[in-house]
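Researcher: Batch entry, complex prediction.
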Amino acid sequence: MTDPIPLAPAVRLRDAVASRGGRPVLRGIDLTVRPGEVVALLGANGSGKSTTVKAVIGSVPLEHGTLDLFGTPYRSFRAWHRIGYVPQRTTAASGVPATVREVVSTGRLAQHRLLPFRRKDRAAVDAALDAVGMLDRAGDGVADLSGGQQQRVLIARALVGSPELLIMDEPMAGVDAASQQVLADTLRAEVDRGAAVLLVLHELGPLEPLIDRAVVLRDGCVAHDGPPVPNTGLHALPGHDHVHPHADLTPPRLLA
Amino acid sequence: MTEMLSYDFMQRALLAAVLVGITAPAVGIYLVQRRQALMGDGMGHVAMTGVGLGFIFQTSPVWMAVLVCVLGAVTMELVRSRGNQRGDIALAMLFYGGMACGKLLVSLSAQAGAGSLESYLWGSILTVAPGDLAVIAALGAVVVAVTVGLRRQLFAICQDEDFARVTGVPVRVLNLLLAVMAAVTVTVAMRVVGLLLVSALMVVPVVAAQQLTRSFAATQAASIGLGVVVSLAGVTGSYHLNVPSGPAIVLLAIAVFAVFSVIAAPLARRRHRAGAGAGAEPGPRVCDVEIPSPTSPGTTTPERGAGLAQ
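Model: Structure tokens for the complex:
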């Protein structure tokens, strides 16, 4: 499927409303990610960052509003090979052992679909594992890896299809320093390659130099959309979640 | 041994055991992967209603069980995929309702007798008829074709459903397909191990195999191999010892699991040592976690500290 409009935004979410478990979480979010752009989604816990990302990939349905991916309405979007997704990591392991290679290989499903896994798929898996420095662990079980290494595996899984849009939910959370460096380098290489990136972050942190634009959410609404404020992380932006002893006694959630 | 094989009913029993030994772990591995190991048990309960309906309408209890069990499995999948917090309660209603309804229907039917439901609950492999065998073979072939042929797709949806959706895999369709395959397996295995023990043959060979494996592909192959071995050995043992085949197969599988988990630890240690080089200290090969030095807190950047605190 080709783009109806060349260089249409990779993501265009307009007036998105969604709720989870009956509680409204998104109350009209506008979010655009243009090709090659790196957008950080910031906000306090419970502000709707993760739900926004889940709405973009379609796993949380929109009650209101529209979602276009690469200029195509979500409903008719089929070009999934253009998107790489890194979910918020709880663990990369499941109830049955799986090797690093097996987990990363699932990232090629958009390419080979029902056809057998071929040599070029295998080469792509090797290249993605090499990019995150995990090629030597390809045959190891994912459950035997550290949290940071598991995160690297999940990023390799998203990179294996050379996506034009990379969506990452808290990629730096719970990741050791060595892996953080690998992730920052990998992300830089992807941006240099021309990929657009939508990142959920708790703080700008080591990725700050890469970020073109920061979107800050508060209570399911966009509170800031513009250039990232340098060297401050969330603290200078509205909606940061520091709890001070004199904080507003009414939890924001109850204001709805 | 030759004497045992000279009986037609034993030939059929052994063939049925092989078919079920292949089919049950081939599906069960996905349920285990998704940490739904007890789902097969629930489907067995629901299938009892199908058996009861078969008794009432004087039709084949097996086909009725397939029908009802597929409906039950689809319901369970819909409850699961909606992520409803009270989903477990809905499932409890379904399981116990299915079991109670089955017993009630059987007792109302003309064939109500002491042994009629019993043979479906605990299996009656020695009474497998040639027609049954054809049904078991056909359904088993479909299940194996789907669970092995779509291994990469099913692995992806059971490993990480959200990620699988972003690769364009039809997650909902595959989830339903998997549920239907599990339901078909339950009813296929019903004659061999019985509805109450069906789930064991779907789960125990898988968890036994994974004591010794590191990859999904190896786990699937080994669990199918184990399923065949314990099914054949169980049926043979039940012939010689004059005990029911279902419990014999299941206890054998559990014994294999126990043995494997005992030898798993030293084996893993040896594998570790082989990787680290002879004579090396046991322990992690690579230390990649950097602990910020407590003597120089000023060098820890705030963002790194925040990242580690997550």
